[in-house]
Amino acid sequence: xxxxxxxxxxxxxxxxxxxxxxxxxxxxxxxxxxxxxxxxxxxxxxxxxxxxxxxxxxxxxxxxxxxxxxxxxxxxxxxxxxxxxxxxxxxxxxxxxxxxxxxxxxxxxxxxxxxxxxxxxxxxxxxxxxxxxxxxxxxxxxxxxxxxxxxxxxxxxxxxxxxxxxxxxxxxxxxxxxxxxxxxxxxxxxxxxxxxxxxxxxxxxxxxxxxxxxxxxxxxxxxxxxxxxxxxxxxxxxxxxxxxxxxxxxxxxxxx
Length: 256
What we know:
alpha/beta; Rossmann fold; two-stranded antiparallel sheet; 6 helices; globular
């Protein structure tokens, strides 16, 4: 099987985020970056499928030069090669622009299976994998908790709401978005880290792909929420106060 895995580089969870003047984005020079956690589960699942069925795993990431570190980490864990779609202003892309760029960059690869994490830790749209499937003309399924590859098709377990699951079948090739917790991601070994230095990372300039830059949505401003406190006394009889409390919990706090 030829499996592609999209791995995004995101700000580290413990990074103290500082917003640039104007609120367009964060100040990247002051923070560290790491692999998007949901994507690590997608990578691990790809590596397990390769170990079981043979083939090749290709790690794909888009962004500036620094995202090569995320690709190298995937190579150290066992991916065979990487594709870097280079773009310093990738953060300005909306999910459709990102999916269009990824689709244009990997279309010639003809993957049997393409995996992404369910969503990214930074923006969390959860749309790129589904849009990628549509642009490539491939069937897709989301929130995958188990994959069983059969002859030219897959049997999949999807997580639904309220603890329910669904089993379905999809033909290959296909695109899947992987739910966190599907497996236990491995660590890179010293042998894997040394081997990664000899593996290929192909760089494709996003500007050369001919993808439109006009976004269908845009971020107006990024800001840190202001913490406020408000105390309100509810008066009336016990019955009236209880009814008023329920209304506030339901419609204002939205916890009921």
